Each structure stands twice: as C-alpha cells, then as structure tokens.
Hints:
The chain is mainly alpha-helical and about 1250 residues long. Helix content is about 60%, strand content about 5%. A 6-stranded mixed sheet has the order 9-8-10-14-15-16, with helices on both faces. It has a 5-stranded mixed sheet with strand order 3-2-1-4-7, sandwiched between helices. A 3-stranded antiparallel sheet has the order 11-12-13. The chain is elongated. This is CHAT domain-containing protein.
Amino acid sequence: MEDQDRVLVAQCHFVVGELLKACWIQPDSECQSFLSYSYQLSTVQLHLWGRDEACVKLSAHFGISLEFRENAENLDQAIQHFTRALSSRPLSHPERAMTLCYLAHDLQARFHRRNDDADIDAAIEYYRAAARDPSAPVTPAFLKELVISLRLRFEQRRDPHDIDEAIVIMRQFLDAHPAPHLRRITYLGDLAFLLKLRLEDSSGRDDNSDIDTVINLRREAVALQGSTHPDGSTTLTELGAALRARFEIRRSTDDLEDAIQCHRDGLASSSSHSDRLRALTNLATAVKIRFETQGNVDDLDEIIQLWREEASLRTDVDRYGTLRDLGGVLEVRFDKRGNKDDLDEAIQHRREAVRLYAALDSTRSQLLRELSYSLRERFQRIVSAADLDEAVQLARAALVPCATEETGTYLRDLATNLQLRFAHLGHPHDIDEAIELYRKVLVHDPPTSLTLSNLSIAIQYRFDHQGNPDDIDEAVELCRKSLDLSPADHPKRSVLLINLGAALHSRFKQRASARDLDESVDLHRQALQFDAQSRSTFLSNLADVLQLRFQEFGLKSDIDEAIALYEEAIRTRTRHNQYRHVVLHNLAYALLRRSRKGAKDIDRAVQYFKETLDARAPPDPRRRNALNSLAVALVERFTQQHHTDDIEQAIRLSRESLDLCPDPDPNRSLYLLNVGNCILFGAKVSQSPADATEMGISKLREAAEYGFCAVGNRFTAAGQWIMAHILNHISALDAYRTRIHMLPEMASFSLNLNSRREVLTKGEITSLAASSATFAIQVHQPEVAVEFLEATRSVFWAQALSLRPPIEHLTNVRPELAANLNALSRQLELASFRDTLEASPTATQSQLISAEAETARCRKLAQDWQATIAEVRALPGFEDFLRPRGINSLRLATLRGPVVILLANESASSALILTSRDVVHLPLPAIKVPELEMQVQHLPRSTANESMTRLSAGRERFVQKSTEETLRIHLADLWVKLVKPVLEALKLEKSSVPPRLWWCPTGIFTFLPIHAAGIYDDKTGTDCVSDYVISSYTPTLTALLDRPPVPPETDTLKMSVIVEPHAPNCAPLPGTLTELSIISKRIPSSELTVIHSGTGEQVMQHLRQSSIVHFACHGVQDANNPLDSGLILSDGRLKVSRIMQRGAEDSLSSEGKGTGMLLAFLGACETARGEKGTPDEAMHLAATLLFAGFRGVVATMWTMDDRDGPKVADDFYAHLFKGSSSNVATADLGKAAEALHLAVANLRREPGISFSRWVPFVHYGL
C-alpha cells in the first residue's frame, strides 16, 4: 500500500471510530441521518483503499453496527478502529496526539463499565504519550481526562504516586489560569477535591497540611464566585465540609463554628432543589458534631428541624436514610428531656423508613434493628408489653436478610429483647432462648469479652429467678473469662468489672461466702476508676454491695458509705430517668437498715419506697418487690412509732406482693417471711390475736420449709419462726428442729474446709446449740435438748464423718449401691481438701476459673451423694441412714459411764446428765456467763518458764500469765458451782478406784478445766474431781460411738514415737529426748518405731500402721485459722488439715486403716485448745485425731512444761504396759484415761508443781 493510501485508510478508521463512539455516547434520533450517511461513506472508502482481507471483513462487519448503538460492543469496536488508526499514524503525524487522546478516552469509558485494570492503565499511558507528543499541543480537556484517570486508579489501588501526579497536573492548570479566568473556579474545586482524597488516604504520608490548602482553595473559590453565582451554595457547602474535616483533626472550635456558618450561608443561597438538600444535610451534620462535642441540647432542636425539612424534600426512593437519622436524634433528645412525644415521633419515622425500604438486604436488617431498639427503649420507660413483643418480632425479622458477617450482632439484639421480656414478664422460655442465642453468637463469632459478658448476664438473670446453682457458677466463670480476654485499657473494662461484681453479689446471696462479697466490693470500686460517663450507675452498684455487706456483718461505715453513694447517684439522674427509681428503692432500704441502728431515717425510707411503688404500676413485674419493700419499712416504722395504720397497711401490701409471686419462685420464701412477720406484728393490735398469731406462724413455717429457694433464705425464715417461742407457740420446737436440719446444707460439701468452717462461725449458727437446747429444757424435754445439742455441735466433724458411712449392712442388701456410695463419699472427701485460691490476692482470673471449676465438680459430687443417700433411705430398714441420732441411739455412749453435757446460757446455765437410763436436767443457777468469760481470760497460756514450754516460738501472746492463786480460786469456783452439784446428782463418793465420767462441755465451758475443779487447800485438804471420777472429755456423744474395739490385752501393739527436739525457729526441747529414752524402756524395740527429726510425710505414713502414736515436740494453735494448727516438725508444721486429708486418703485406700490408730499421746502445747469463734466445733488436734479414727487421745489444754513430758509419759506408760515383758508389748488401751489420771496425780504430788503444769493434761475419747 502506498503512503497516500495508508493515510487515507487511517483517516477512514479514525472517522469510523468517531462515528461508533458517537453511536455509543449519543444514540438519539437527531443524528441518525448524518451518522448513517457518514458511516456508509467511510465504509465505501475502506473498500476502495483497504487492500488487505482483514480490512474488507472489518468494513463489512460494521455495516450493521448502527442497529445496536447502545451495545457495549460498539465501544469495543470504536477502540479497535482507533487502535488501527493509531498504528497507521507515525510519531510525526500531526493528528497522532489527538488519536491517542480519543483512544485513551474510550479506554477510560470502558473501564467505567467493566472495571478492567488493563483499560485504565492503558488510558493513562496513552494520555501521557499524547502529552509528550511534540507534534501537536494537547488540549486542557484531555489533560483533565488524564487527571481523572489517575484519580480513578488511585481510588482503585491507593497508589500515592497516582494522586501526587494528578495534583501536580492540577496545580499546573491552576497556575496557568490566574484570576479572573473563568475556569479558575472550576480548577480550584478540582484541586481541592484531589487534595481531600490524599488527605483521606490511609497511608499516613501526609502531615495534614493538605487540609489547610483545601480550605484556602475553597475560600478563594467562594470569593471569586460572589454572592450571586449559581454554584455559590455548592462551594460554600464544600468549604464547610473542609472546615469540619479540619475540626476532626485539630479539634478547634473556631473551625467547627466557621463550618456551621458556611453551611448556613450555603443553605440561604441555595437556589435549586438539589443544592438545598445538600446544604440541609451538611448543616445538620455539622450541628450534630457540635452537640456531640459540647452537649448543648438546643442544638438537637435545630438538627431535628433541618432533618424534618430534608425528609419533606426527598422522594420516597431516598427518604428512608433521612428518616433513619431523624429517628436517632429524636431518641437522643428524648433521653435528654424526657418528652415522650420525641420517642413516639422517632418510632413513627423508623416505621416509615422500614416501609420505604422494601429490599431484603442488610440495610433493611439495620432499619428493622433500629426500630426494634426504639420500641425497646419506649418499653423500658413506659412498660408497654405490646412494644416489647413487637421489638422481639422485629429482631427476629432482622435476622432473615442480614449479612452473614453481621449475624452475631442480630442474634445479640434478639437475645437482649428476650432477656428484657423475661425480666419484666417472667416467661422462662424467653430467658432460655436468650441464653441459647448468646451461645450461638459464640459459635458464629470468635469469643470476645463483651459476648461472654452478655451471656453471663443472661445466665445470672435465670439464676436470680430460678435459683439453679450451676447457673451462677457459670455466670461467674464467664465473667472471669471476659475479664481475662480484655486488656487493662479495654474501653469496656469497667462494664466487665461490674458484671463480675454483680455475679459474685448474686452468688453471695445463695452461699454467703464472704470472699465473694469482698471481691464484689473491690471490683465495683475498680470500675469507678475507669468510666466517668457511667459514674451514676457504678456508684449505685457499689452502694448495693456495701449495703449487703452491712446487712451481713454490721459495719456502720459500710451503710454510711452506701447511703452517700446512692444520694450522689440520684443527684446525677433526672426525675424521668428509668433507673432513678431503682436507685431510690435501694437507698430506701439502706435508710431502713440504718434506722434499725438508731438513725432517724425511717420516714425518708417510707417516703422513697412509696415513690418507687408509684412508679411500678401494674403489670410491671417489679411491683411485687416494691410492695414487699414498703411493707417491710412500714413494719419497722410501726415498731418505732407505733402507728396502727402502718401495720395494717403493711399487712395488706405484703399479701398483695405474695399474690404476685406464684409458686415456684426462689423469692417466694422472702415474701412469705414478710407476710408472716407483718401478721405477727399486727397480732399485737388485732381484735383476734390468737387467729392472727396462728396465721403469721403458718406463713413463717411455709417460708422455712419452701424448698425452691436458697438455704440461706430458709434458714433466715426458720430463725423468724423460732421467735414464736416468745408467743409461747407450740411450734417453736419444730422451728428449732427445722433450722437445725439445715446446718449440713449451710456447710455444704461443695465448700472447701475453710469455707465450711467460716460458715459455722456465724453468730446465728454458733448460738443455735445453746438457744435450742435451752428452749427444749424450758418446755421440759431434756431428751430433745440432748438431740439438739448433738445436731448443732461439731457440725464440721459430723459432716466429715458422714463421708465414712457404715455400709456393711447395705453391702449385704444392695452391694452395687453400697459400692457407689462408698466411691462417691471418698471422692467428695478428698475434693473438700482442694485449694480454691479464693483467699489469694494474687490469683489471676484464669486461676480462679480453674479453682471454681473444681468447686462446681465438687458440688456435682455432693448432689450425686445426696441423691444416693436418698436412694438408700428408700430401702426398707434404712429409713434413718445417716440421719442425726435419736436419744435411744445416743444413750449407748453411756455404756462405760455417764456423760455430763454442760450448757452455758445468759439466762440459765445447766447440766444434762445422760445415763443409760435417762436424761436428768440439773440447773446450775450459780453459774454466770460473764464470770465464766472472766475465768477464761485468766487461764494460763503458758507455764511459769516460757522458754521451757513446748509452744512454738514466734506466736503472739494475747494475755498475761495468770497467777497461781487466781487459778486456785477459779478451780474452787468451778467445783462449788458446777462440778460438786453434778457429782452429788450422780450420788458419787470419793474412791481409790474411781469410775469413769465423760464431760461434754458446750460453748464457753469448752475452755475451762472442768476435770481439775476442786478445793486445793494446804490446810484443810483437797476435795476435787479426781477424788470421785476419772475424767475424760468428748466433743460430742457420737465421738464415743462406733469407735474401734479395744484389742485383747494379749495382742502385740505397735508404737511410733515422734520426737523433735530442735524444730526450726523454735526453742530446743531437751526433755523430748529424755521422754524417748523412758518410753524405749517400756516397750520392746521390735515393736517400737522412732522418728527422730522426721518430716510430716514420714509421720503420716506411720499413723495408720501404729496402734499407739506418741508426739514429743512443739505444738501451736492458730487463732486465725484453726485448720492450720498443728505439730512442729523438722520440715515445718504438720497441720490439722493435713491429718484430716490423710484420713480421707487412707479411707480411699484399699488397705483401709489397718489395725492401728487406737491411742495418740500429744506431748505438745495447746493440742486440745479450741477456737474462740466456734467453741462447739472442737477445732483442735485432739478432735482431729478422733475424727481420723483414733479411739482415745491424750492432749493439753494450754502450754506444757518440757520437764513434765518425761514424767507424765513415764507414769502413763508404766501403768498402760504393766503387763508387758521385755520381748512382748501388751497393754489394756481401755485404761488410757486411768493411766493419765494416775500420771497427773503423781505429777501434782511433786513439790513445787504449780496448777498450770498439771492441769493442762486431758484425755479425749474412750
């Protein structure tokens, strides 16, 4: 082809390309004739000059293109023609640059349609090539197209080089068009837009200086346009947007105010519908930012007005977004001002938004979700069940079209609505479904601290209404996990702390663990430090737990602080606030409780309770609690001010509250209790007091026996029922019996040892033994008094012993059931020795989770054990299996001699003398409890020579040493007022071979040396207990039953002697070596095992194998934790708890206890000294060894002199082994008490031996 022909072909291709491009861009009928004629002419020219076959085919193919002008293939074909034209135009061709621009333009257009990266890359390269072509200048329009292409690719790939190049080109344009050029305003806007894009880029390259340039460019455009320019409104709006952007960066209030003014000016100058809509939107947005920053509620008024107008201007197609925004800001204004009309209008707009947006996609889900939220908010303020039902329905509907990645959010919303409906209407299926939905969220989304916390709150709700202990443990565990997942700076950490505190608060109400309550207080205090915005709520939460702690422990500073916190919380809440009445109610209770301590708060309490009740109109489910609370306050005011109207109103209100709490409900017991109390108080002014009393007591009985609630609530109700004895009501004995039967459940096996012991230190439990027995005596039932004392004392040991049940007979009847019970008992016993870490201040949440999981396992074991016991009791002949022993069984403890139970009471002390025939009540009117308390204070804690005692060094000395004369006086006092009357009642005389007698002291008597009471006068002679009887002690009657039998005297006995003369950090005990030497002479070496400076583990291994175990070492009684009391060995303290644990391990062993563990001699200090807080629990080493299986124990009530150990041991074993030979050790272990009796008598007769040296030695058991 000739050059001339090639040029003509290129021109034809170019023309065809232009025509096709026109067909694609502008397919209207006006250009139909011209385009058809031009196309046909160009096609003819291609036929004439196009010599190759491809060109001919190409021309023929395009013959039908005009019929499909809107088809994208036209654009493809245009690009092909421009590409052919470009290939035919060499670099020097004057029209090459124009062809490059046209081709680039069409490639850019195709990129818009197909988003093919290759098109935009090629377009940019062709534009750049055109700009570099020296043959012809490129028009500004095509350079702007290059800028557009660079911007498009930047938006696609975020390559900063693209936006930088575009900005450079636009700056060149701007520089080339100074004012007053007409296009400068356009270029100012284009450059500002590009700079804004770069500013918003997430690459972080910019130093934010671009925003200043953008604002300057926009300001210049505004100035050039003047006030009458048709685009003035748009430019002002864009300037306002730029100022808003700079405010977000630098937080300058001036920028925000300038932005608002620009938007106001833009709105005022808007001339078109679209300009006004844009101006309204931007002004509302800017004012909303100012409200969120400064909190001026008046701004909300303007925002609402602007969005109302915007909504009126928009068509149905795009109005839903404005309605959505308008609904949101109306809700905010409602929250600030409390005008119900705002909330109603918000719901109306949200409904309209849902109606207008019919597409089933994620936007519709969001609209449904927001409407559901608004209805939920209205329900919480107005309590309309219809609103809440609709909120639930909408939340369900929102789940259908929601995006998969948002499913978790919508599941949470539905769960929240169901949880709220349960809280207000109490339908169990709602909370069950809510919990299941929260669990699905955990499956759908990775666990987060907030998701776990939400689930924990729902489970806690269910626990509060249904009382399942598994629920509250899971709630606590989930709360701990949520805290573990959240770093210290987590924005919601305060909420997580509060939730855990609330769960522990709830668990305390069921289990009364002081650790739970103290941790809850600490968590609420921590939360206050994190979140200032929620301070009011957090203040109230902290006040709640402080009030509860005051209720339990009575510390006045707790209730004073709680009231101050409530009052501060109320000051920060407006009167319409939905939570104000919750805080007001709790404040009223705090005032009520403080009024019981003498404060003048009762009238305020009643006033606040009435205000709360007024806010809880039917059918609000919280109304029953408000009714009950007001009734309680009115009763209290009646007791203080004696207004008959108060008690009459209280009775009516309490009955109404009970009617609103149908069975089953874990709170019903409390409502029954309050009704009963109200009626009993009303009986004082009733016209039919007998009927009223009967009705009131029946309600108290029902409350105490109501099984669907925590044992603590029933225990409290039984305590109120017990007060019936004041009214001389016959049921008081049943009340005591009911309360006593709850003691094992109060000290449940699900608790570890320390926790069980702590439960038993509570005053209402420690006083139960004396009060119940005293009442039984008053109604002339001494046998019942004995049963009550047996069931209320040494509960700790009774619980432990029940885990070693007698199963021989059961094995014969139901061997598989016996085996199951035995296995469960052993597992449960070992589990009770677990380390819970609860007391450790350094324990992490993960460690606490693990410890509480073990607690849950232990509780499950306890439940299985209880169920198995119930199964056993269902068998004929096993109805009383492991039930408290009755009097007929307890009398068996007297087969070897009488047992004297000593009972100290503020009103009247007495003795119950139990023989094989009957129980005799012996009043002791001369015994006064205050005098006994003084005697206990004067008892010696040490002998005259402290350095010579076997008391562990380093322990605090709490009292000064008593004098010999003081002790002489106290022993004489005990003789005259207590012991001599008992001996006379038993008609006992002095004897050289005195009979056995067991003392079973209770309360303060457990600290007194009853066995040593007497007149010790050098002139007139001696008249004392040991002249009449051989004394032994027993913590309970049961401790004398089911003991191992005494082996025949001919049996060979194994003995272990443990001596520790040089314990770490203790004074040396040279006497222990002398003691060992003496013992070695009394028993053949083949039968004797000596552990000299051994470890605790070595000692424990020999306990079970030895018939007799003798300790000669230091001992200590731990006043803070009696379970840490013990014997001091070479490797430290052998604690009570460790000996107990070994007993459990031995019972689990297939070898059993063997033939050992018959007699223990504790030649150490304080081995029979109990704990002041729980004197009836016998928390000392002597009792521990009885529990571990020993038949008898020799111990000391206080410190012993190291010099006396060898003397007492020599005489003791001389009598015990007097039938032994040099090769065979035989002894009558039934004479251990007699042996100690003689040994102490010999010590007493030695010159210079003080009371404090011989009195401490005592014998426990058989």
